Every structure is written in C-alpha cells, then in structure tokens.
Amino acid sequence: KKVCRFCSDTDFVMDYKDQRMMQSFVSEHGKIVPRRISGNCATHQRKLTSAVKRARNLAIVGYVSLGG
Known about the structure:
Layout (H helix, E strand, L loop, with lengths): L4 H4 L10 H6 L10 H4 L3 H16 L11
C-alpha cells in the first residue's frame, strides 16, 4: 500500500510556488495524477489539487506539456 508523502514526512511541505514538486504530481500530458497512483490521502490530494490549479493560474506549471 502506498503511503501519503505529506502525512509520513512532516518536513515535506506543499507549496504551490515549488515548481519541481508540483511537476511531480502532474502527468506528461498535463493532468493531475490521481490519488490511487500518487498514494496521497484524501485531505492532501484535495490540497494538492488546489495548489496545482493555483500554480497553473500563475504560469508556474503548464496546462499541457510543450514536448513534441
């Protein structure tokens, strides 16, 4: 069973300004990774979703990947 990173490690802080962390929870197609794959608990997945959406709005994380 996967364990929530945020519950297990209190030093691991969720911050929408941290591009590297936000990018790790977004797929290569630009979608937010679901809970069953990321292993987050429900509370932290909801906070993560809000943080990714906020980062997208500020153009820190893209809506789609620009690879090609």
